[in-house]
C-alpha cells in the first residue's frame, strides 16, 4: 500500500502496510490479499471480511493484540487514522510537562463510545502505556470489548452508560480523575441520513448501491438525535459539571462547518482554552476539538 507521510510522525503506519510482515504474523490474511495495478500487495477494501482481517493483523503485529475480533456489522475502524488521534493527544498532554511525551499508567484516559473494537484503548495502551476506561451505551459493544480484554489479559476498565440522554452523567463518579477524554461521536441525525451517507461512501468506493459498508456500524455508532452537534452540545454542557475532574476534554469533529457552532458553545461554557487540531491523512483531513477549564498555570500531569 502507498505510504502515508502526512500521518503523525510517531504513527507506525506512515510507510503504509508491510504485508510481508503482516502475513508472517497472520497467515490467515493471505486469503484476502490481492495485487494492485502496480503489482503491490493490498486487500479489497470493499470487502468487510478483508477489512476485519487486516485490522486483526495490524493489531497483532504492531500492538501485540493476539486475539481480536468484533461482531459482524459493527464498526471496524481503520487503524492508521484512529491511532493518529492518540498521538496528537499525547502531544497535547505533553504541553503540561515541558514537551515530554507522557507515558505509563499514571496517565488516565476516558474513551467515550469505545465501541466493539476497543480501538483507542488498545492502541493507546500499547503505544504509551496509559490507563484507559472505555465507555459505551451499547451492551453488545461492551460485551465485545470485555471479551477482547479477557482474551488478551488487558487492564482496561469498561463501563456502560445507562442513559442515552447523558454522556458524562451517570458514568463518572466523584472520585474519577482523568487527564484526557476522547470520542468519535455519531455523525448523523437520523437513520435515514446515516443510510444516505453509507450509500454515498459505497458509491465513492466504486461498488454501486448498498445498504452495508465495509467498515460497518450500528445505529448508536452512526447516528443520534441531533446528530454530531447535538451529541457534542451535550458533551460540552456536561463537561462543566466535571470541569475539575479532567484536564482536557476532546472529541473528533467530522464536519468542518460544525466548528463555528462548537466554538460558540465552548465560549458559552466559559472554558479557559479551546483548541482545534487538524490531522492530515492522505487526501482526507480530520480534526478534533479540545477544551480545558484549567488555567495554564494549573495544568500538570
Query: What best-fitting shape do the alpha-carbon axes yield?
Result: globular
* Mean of all residue-level pLDDT scores: 89
Beta-strand portion reads 15-25%
pLDDT < 50 stretches: 193-205, 210-215, 217-224
Going by CATH, the homologous superfamily would be Vaccinia Virus protein VP39
Spatial separation of the terminal alpha carbons: 38 Å
Question: Roughly how much helix do the residues carry, as a percent range?
Answer: 25-40%
Overall number of structural domains: 1
CATH architecture: 3-Layer(aba) Sandwich
CATH topology assignment: Rossmann fold
Strand order of the largest sheet: 5-4-3-6-7-9-8
The largest β sheet comes out as: 7 strands, mixed
Question: With helices defined by DSSP (H or I, 4 residues minimum), what is the helix count?
Answer: 9
Backbone structural class = alpha/beta
Amino acid at each position: 500500500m502507498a505510504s502515508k507521510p502526512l500521518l503523525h510522525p510517531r504513527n507506525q503506519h506512515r510507510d503504509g502496510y508491510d504485508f510481508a510482515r503482516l502475513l508472517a504474523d497472520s497467515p490467515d490474511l493471505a486469503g484476502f490479499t490481492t495485487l494492485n495495478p502496480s503489482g503491490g500487495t493490498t486487500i479489497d477494501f470493499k470487502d468487510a471480511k478483508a477489512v476485519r482481517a487486516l485490522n486483526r493483523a495490524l493489531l497483532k503485529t504492531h500492538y501485540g493484540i493476539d486475539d481480536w475480533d468484533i461482531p459482524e456489522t459493527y464498526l471496524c475502524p481503520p487503524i492508521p487514522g484512529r491511532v493518529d488521534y492518540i498521538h496528537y493527544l499525547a502531544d497535547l498532554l505533553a504541553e503540561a510537562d515541558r514537551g515530554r511525551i507522557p507515558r505509563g499508567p499514571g496517565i488516565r484516559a476516558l474513551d467515550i463510545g469505545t465501541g466493539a473494537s476497543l480501538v483507542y484503548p488498545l492502541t493507546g495502551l500499547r503505544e504509551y502505556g496509559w490507563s484507559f476506561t472505555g465507555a459505551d451505551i451499547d451492551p453488545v459493544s461492551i460485551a465485545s470489548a470485555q471479551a477482547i480484554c479477557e482474551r488478551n489479559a488487558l487492564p482496561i476498565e469498561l463501563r456502560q452508560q445507562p442513559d442515552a440522554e447523558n454522556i458524562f452523567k451517570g458514568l463518572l463518579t466523584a472520585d474519577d480523575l482523568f487527564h484526557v477524554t476522547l470520542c468519535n461521536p455519531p455523525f448523523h441525525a437520523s437513520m435515514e441520513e446515516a443510510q444516505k451517507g453509507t450509500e454515498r461512501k459505497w458509491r465513492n468506493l466504486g461498488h454501486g448501491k448498498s445498504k452495508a459498508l465495509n467498515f460497518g456500524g450500528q445505529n448508536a455508532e452512526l447516528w443520534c438525535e441531533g446528530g454530531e452537534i447535538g451529541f457534542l452540545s451535550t458533551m460540552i454542557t456536561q463537561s462543566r459539571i466535571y470541569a475539575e475532574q479532567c484536564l482536557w476534554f476532546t472529541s473528533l469533529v467530522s464536519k468542518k462547518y460544525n466548528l463555528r457552532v462548537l466554538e460558540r458553545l465552548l465560549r458559552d461554557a466559559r472554558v479557559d482554552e479551546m483548541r482545534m487540531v487538524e490531522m492530515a491523512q492522505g487526501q482526507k483531513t480530520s480534526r478534533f476539538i479540545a477544551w480545558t477549564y484549567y488555567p495554564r498555570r494549573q495544568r500538570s500531569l
